[in-house]
């Protein structure tokens, strides 16, 4: 899959992206906005493990955000299960030198219709750390609405944070 946006190309991950993934993912400011599944420090082994998972058999979708032939971030969807099987979660991250340029907004905006077309979902959601207002703006620009604030729902780097839940419906 390849999606061209105004600012980047969304494409499948490749094992050759491992060094770029380490270069851009090994950043405490990036990791501070993401779940602990995104390790910090980010090692070559972490990159290889992630790329193997992202390119292996999975119902989820993981795409690299490519600028100039280099993976500088990622965007993807995780389909929930059980009673939430008609809901999916969108997630994304971008290397710090590329923040503030509309790249994440372009990526999310381009991926939303693909997700609603590819998956039998009614609801697309994202849980954002309360310390990440830039990510909230990305979702708002892409038609997501702020649905709820889960107080002290996140424990990251020794601190409790609120999770701000955004949603967009089919």
How would you characterize this protein structure?
- The structure is a single chain.
- The protein is an alpha+beta fold and 170 residues long.
- It has one domain: 3-Layer(aba) Sandwich (Aminopeptidase).
- The chain has helices at 18-25, 28-31, 44-55, 103-118, 133-141; strands spanning 2-4, 9-12, 61-67, 70-79, 87-94, 123-129, 145-156, 159-169.
- Helix 4 crosses helix 5.
- The longest helix has 16 residues, at 103-118.
- The mean pLDDT is 96.
CATH class equals Alpha Beta
Number of helices: 5
The appropriate CATH architecture is 3-Layer(aba) Sandwich
Low-confidence stretches: none
Radius of gyration from the CA trace? 15 Å
- Counting DSSP E segments of at least 2 residues, the number of strands comes to 8
Shape: globular
Assigned CATH superfamily: Gcn5-related N-acetyltransferase (GNAT)
CATH topology type: Aminopeptidase
How much helix is in the residues? 25-40%
What value does the average pLDDT take?
A: 96
The domain tally reads: 1
Q: Main sheet: which strands, in order across?
A: 1-2-3-4-5-6-8-7
């Amino acid at each position: 899959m390849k999606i061209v946006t105004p600012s980047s190309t969304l494409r499948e991950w490749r094992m050759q992206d491992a060094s770029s993934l380490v270069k851009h993912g090994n950043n405490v400011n990036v990791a501070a906005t993401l779940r602990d599944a995104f390790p910090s420090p980010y090692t070559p082994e972490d990159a290889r493990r992630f790329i193997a998972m992202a390119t292996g058999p999975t119902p989820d979708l993981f795409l690299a955000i490519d600028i100039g032939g280099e993976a500088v971030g990622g965007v993807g969807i995780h389909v929930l299960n059980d009673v939430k099987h008609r809901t999916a979660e969108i997630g994304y991250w971008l290397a710090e030198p590329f923040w503030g340029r509309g790249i994440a907004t372009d990526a999310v905006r381009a991926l939303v219709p693909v997700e609603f077309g590819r998956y039998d979902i009614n609801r697309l959601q994202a849980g954002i750390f309360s310390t990440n207002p830039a990510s909230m703006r990305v979702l708002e620009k892409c038609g997501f609405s702020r649905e709820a604030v889960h107080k002290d729902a996140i424990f990251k780097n020794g601190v409790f944070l609120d999770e701000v839940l955004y949603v967009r419906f089919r």
